[in-house]
Design goal:
Helix content: under 10%
Radius of gyration: 16 Å
Strand content: over 45%
Shape: globular
Structural class: mainly beta
Distance between the termini: 35 Å
Largest sheet: 6 strands, antiparallel
Length: 155
């Protein structure tokens, strides 16, 4: 419990395979790197909830009490279904290129571009020639994404 004291209450029940807790409340990873339990990493942090959203579109999800982060990897030419949900969403293209579809428009995006999607607006994504990574931010957290599953939840 010491290592998890600064995490939102629902995170206490999540699996933790990214390292071991030390008496000082730190998590050790890779044998020589110490980080506090409230520090996460965009590169495959094992404390996230894994979810396949579509073939070639996989997410590592980190829910908080009022906000949720999702690190999404998109294989070349993979297509996320066009959908809508009531939560608002921000997305940041961390790596690669993609086509962002929103409100009937298809916009070519490259690393560093980011977008805002109000709740209820139809949107989706198509991967480019190389793999891409997106950081999605939802508010409030998507309840259906708080569990590992295959497939995008239908709203």
């Amino acid at each position: 419990r010491v290592a998890q004291q600064n995490m939102p209450p629902h995170r206490h029940r999540r699996r933790h395979t990214g390292g071991r807790a030390t008496p000082a409340g730190h998590i050790t990873r890779g044998g020589n790197m110490n980080k506090a339990s409230w520090v996460f990493n965009l590169n495959g942090d094992a404390r996230g909830i894994l979810r396949t959203l579509a073939p070639g579109v996989d997410a590592n999800i980190f829910p908080g009490e009022k906000v949720m982060l999702s690190v999404v990897t998109i294989a070349p030419h993979a297509k996320g279904s066009v959908h809508a949900h009531p939560e608002e969403q921000w997305g940041v293209l961390l790596e690669g290129k993609c086509t962002r579809i929103q409100g009937g428009e298809a916009i070519e995006c490259s690393a560093g571009d980011f977008w805002y999607t109000p709740g209820g607006v139809m949107h989706g994504i198509v991967g480019g020639e190389a793999p891409a990574r997106v950081l999605d931010i939802f508010s409030p957290p998507r309840e259906e994404y708080k569990r590992a599953e295959i497939g995008r939840a239908h709203v």
